[in-house]
Design goal:
Order of helices and strands: EEEEEEEEEHEEHHHHH
Low-confidence stretches: none
InterPro entries: HerA-like, HerA_central, P-loop_NTPase
Largest sheet: 6 strands, antiparallel, barrel
Radius of gyration: 28 Å
Mean pLDDT: 83
Helix content: 10-25%
Number of helices: 6
Strand content: 25-35%
Pfam families: DUF87 (PF01935)
Organism: Aeromonas veronii AMC34
Structural class: alpha+beta
Distance between the termini: 72 Å
Number of domains: 3
Shape: elongated
Protein name: Helicase HerA central domain-containing protein
């Protein structure tokens, strides 16, 4: 069980309002050896509805001066919530699928429950932590590096630093898993990663100083099967989709047939 802190008094769309009990104003509480953060902006609240526990986040709070608790001579504190998911058999499911009803009880979430919202972290691929909860964040690295990665932001927002952090974490912790099966090519126009950045061990890193204005210097090795690819040719020659790409496709397929 957790600490009950109030009950639902209004549900309009996805906007939930709960009336808090008086003892819910504390910043931190301990119950059965577990730590609970009190009710505040951006904290998580649990609302029990049948066999499911609905997880909501605090968006705002206010005092309703129209309604007064005559017994304790104080105004009733109300909190606005937005649901983000639910627990079903102790597994968190993201998305607004279930909503509470009036008089459902709201509870605080323990630190362990909050951490479970972000999944079980991979201790060897942690890229950071959440700002408010300080929960370690890890990514499924086998899926992340098997597709495209898009990092979006304004100038100076840290896009390059984010990618550097992700790849550095990969190479520092998973190099033995990928060294025999994967190759990473970094096109570095500014020479930022030519020394011990990304990979500090020179055994796993080769730097090619390319110069298109001279026939001397390093040459980037490329296997024939990689070079003779219709998609690569389409990019190199800026081929049009309907006329030139079919021609390049016939060249590549014809070469593989008669070589």
């Amino acid at each position: 069980m957790s600490i009950a802190i109030g009950e639902v008094i209004s549900v309009r769309g996805t906007n939930i309002i709960i009336a808090l009990y008086e003892e819910s104003n504390k910043e931190t509480l301990f119950y059965n050896g577990e730590k609970f953060n009190g009710v505040s902006i951006q904290e998580f609240i649990l609302i029990r509805r049948g066999f499911r526990d609905i997880v909501a986040r605090v968006q705002g709070e206010y005092l309703d001066e129209r309604v007064k608790d005559e017994l304790n001579n104080c105004y009733i504190r109300k909190v606005e919530l937005v649901p983000i998911g639910y627990f079903y058999f102790d597994i968190f499911h993201e998305g607004i699928k279930h909503l509470p009803m009036i008089r459902d009880t709201a509870y605080l979430m323990s630190d362990n429950q909050v951490k479970s919202l972000f999944g079980k972290p991979d201790d060897k691929f942690i890229i950071g932590e959440t700002l408010t909860e300080e929960v370690p964040i890890s990514l499924p690295w086998t899926k992340l590096f098997n597709t495209h990665i898009g990092v979006f932001g304004n100038t100076g927002s840290g896009k390059s630093n984010t990618l550097t952090n992700i790849y550095t974490t990969l190479f520092n912790n998973k190099i033995n898993n990928i060294k025999e099966v994967s190759h990473f090519i970094v096109i570095d126009f500014n020479g930022e990663y030519t020394r011990n950045q990304l990979i500090s061990d020179s055994e796993f890193k080769t730097v090619y100083q390319l110069d298109t204005g001279s026939t001397e210097g390093n040459k980037f090795p490329l296997m024939r099967d990689v070079f003779w690819d219709e998609e690569l040719f389409g990019i190199l020659f800026k081929a049009t989709e309907n006329t030139q790409k079919p021609f390049l496709k016939r060249i590549v397929s014809g070469r593989s047939k008669f070589k």
